[in-house]
Amino acid sequence: MLKSLSIRNFVLIDRLNIEFEDGFSVMTGETGAGKSIILGALALVLGQRVDSKSIQAHAEKCVVEALFDLSAYRLEEFFSSHDLEYDARNCILRRELHRSGKSRAFVNDTPASLSVIKSLGDRLIDIHSQHQNLLLADTHFQLNVVDVMSQTGPLLKTYGETYNRYLSLSAQLTALVEKAAKEKEEEDYLRFQFEELKTAHLAENEQTELEQEWDTLTHAEEIKLALYKVTSLLNGDEQGAVRMVKESASAMAGLEACFPKAVEYAERLRSACIDLNDLSSEMETLKEDIEYNPERMEWVNSRLNTLYSLQQKHHVSSVGELMACRDAFDGQLQLIDSYEEEIASLTEQQAEVYRHLTAQAAEISAMRKKAAGSVEQPLVQRMMQLGMTNTRFKIEFADKPRPSADGMDEIAFLFSANRNEPLKPVAQTASGGEISRLMLCVKAMIAGFAALPTIIFDEIDTGTSGDIADRMAGIMQELGQRMQVIAITHLPQIAARGRVQYFVYKQDTDERTYTRIRRLDEAERVHEIARMLSGATLTDASVANAKELLNGSIK
User: Fold this and answer.
1) How many other CB atoms are found less than 10 A from the CB of residue 404?
2) Gap between the Cα atoms of 188 and 507, Å rounded
């Protein structure tokens, strides 16, 4: 429950401290006194976004601090999972809003993100403002009401994980199909490029070898002539180098007996003679091999032109790079060929997840329908207690064409307040006062399921008065026996039912106007309720009536 609220420098509030009680309390005051400002400050500390204009003009920051008793609500796991200190009796939420726009949030003096504060706040307080009555016509809100009453939370969490998996697979499948279709359009082009490079029978060093061969073929006569000259010089009959070195070796060998060094020189000359003779033989063979071959020249030229053309086409400068292009095309074609298998695999996975998804959705739907059936009649009975004796109410279900994040159920609250009037969606048939009463009954029914520590009703009594207002107060008072209930009201019938009454008012000073709040004692309560009954001018009758309301209503 909410134990206290401290507000500094927020809108018309310079400094305000409120201590709250358990059970049913009420908050009253003139229109414009600042009740909504107090709610706004509470919403701020619970994680709602507020701009820096809410800070008082003379201040650099505003601070709102709320103290809660969480001992009955088993929130240890939430605190543990968010690495927050857990103090069941004194849990402090604090929010600081700076003029610069910077905002800071704390849980028990530990900094926390706004999303964590908001998530915790949703577990602590339900603030029902006037505009929330309009939510009763919203199908998402209606579905949430049914889910709260059917306790589908754990199953919905599992369903949500399956649904996200299904969405992920669907997105992957769609992307793969689109990619496959796009690349399928390019398949013929890719296959042509690949086949062209494949049939070229590329080899790593071929271009270098062909270029060298081309140089040789184009200079065949020049080479042949040079080789002929070399062989003649080496092996000429009379002046050939081989003959002359051989004779030199023989002459040196004749000196071996009288000139010891001649042995070494003779050996070297014989070795040189052998080398020159071998070289002459190779030149002779090479000379015969070299010849002008127009047909070979034409083939080499054609092959080089093919390689040069392919390199230019694919913007590369070597056969190695052409081979890399060929392999890349081959890889792309293999990938295209594999798409069909991948698509089939993903389709099968998606179908399997879809089966699990629809099975979980069916289980959720069964729980919702069971809960709806057990809710309709008790809700009608509550509405009858509020003076709507001809009320009929039904929760209608329809199947969605495909799964969504919250299942496969379409929910509609059908309502009729008058005899023989057909059931219609709430938005089409209920008046403002009827919606207020219906919303109160719905909130009363789901309060036990939601297990919220606190619920705040901000003028939920709009459009009602007299006996109906008294009966609405009775429902809120009944709720107050199970949880903390705070009602902001302008109706004396409701104000009189509260165990505690707070009065919100404006106070003028020389500098500015401030919003104040105080807890009323018994005498002040009589005075305030009498004012609510008769207006600014109190009468003996209104005072007596106020005392009667208080004496008969407080339980």
Assistant:
1) 12
2) 84
pLDDT tops 70 at residue 344? yes
Q: Residue type for 96, please?
A: E
Helices (runs of H) and strands (runs of E) counted in the chain: 18, 15
Residues 6+ apart with CB under 8 A from 385: 471, 474, 475
Q: Is the pLDDT of residue 45 over 60?
A: yes
In the structure, what pLDDT confidence band is assigned to residue 555 with cuts at 50, 70 and 90?
very low
Q: Choose among 250, 39, 19, 210: nearest CA to 125.
A: 39
> In whole angstroms, how far apart are CA 348 and each of 81, 343, 401, 429?
36, 8, 21, 47
Taking alpha carbons only, the member of 66, 65, 75, 71 closest to residue 123 is: 75
**Residue 451's closest CA among 160, 151, 91?**
151
Query: Would you state the structure tokens that stand for residue 331, as one six-digit string?
Result: 């890889």
**Residue 519 CB-half CA count within 13 A:** 10
Mark out the alpha helices in 107-152 (DSSP H runs).
114-124, 139-150
The rounded distance, in Å, linking the Cα atoms of 549 and 246 is 147
- Judge whether 495 and 501 are in contact, CB under 8 Å: yes
* Strand bridging mode 125-128 / 454-458: parallel
pLDDT above 70 for 223 = yes
| CA separation for the pair 170, 528 (Å, rounded) | 63
Tokens, residue 335: 């990938």
Q: Where are the beta strands (DSSP E) in 69-174?
A: 91-98, 103-107, 110-112, 125-128
For residue 157, give the nearest of 421, 360, 293 by alpha carbon: 360
Give the C-alpha distances (Å, rounded to integers) separating 250 from 102, 254, 276, 553: 108, 6, 16, 148
DSSP 203: -
Determine the Cα–Cα distance for residues 335 and 318; give it in Å rounded to an integer: 26
Q: Mean of the per-residue pLDDT values for the chain?
A: 86
**Alpha helix (H) residue ranges in 219-318:** 220-235, 241-253, 261-289, 294-313
- Report how far residue 358's alpha carbon sits from residue 362's, in angstroms, rounded to the nearest whole number: 6
Q: Which residue has the tokens 């019938």?
A: 493
Q: In Å, what is the CA distance from 103 to each residue of 55, 58, 234?
A: 12, 18, 100
Q: Are 37 and 12 a contacting pair, CB within 8 Å?
A: yes
CA-to-CA separations, 177 to 36, 344, 463, 555, in angstroms, rounded: 54, 10, 57, 69
φ, ψ dihedrals at 219, nearest 5°: -120, 25
The amino acid at 215: D
Residue 75, SS3?
coil
- Which residues, including other chains, have CB under 8 Å from residue 276's CB and lie 6 or more apart? 234, 241, 242, 245
What is the rounded distance in angstroms from the CA atom of residue 224 to the CA atom of residue 210? 19
What span, in angstroms and rounded, lies between the C-alpha atoms of 419 and 25?
36
Q: Round to whole Å and give the CA distance between 5 and 427.
A: 36
Lowest mean pLDDT among 65-79, 264-278, 300-314, 449-463: 449-463
Residue 425: C-alpha distances to residues 393, 395, 411, 417, 517 (Å): 10, 10, 10, 12, 41
Structure tokens at 542: 């209104």
Cα 383 to Cα 391: distance, rounded to the nearest angstrom: 7
Alpha-carbon gap, residue 355 to 208, rounded angstroms: 63
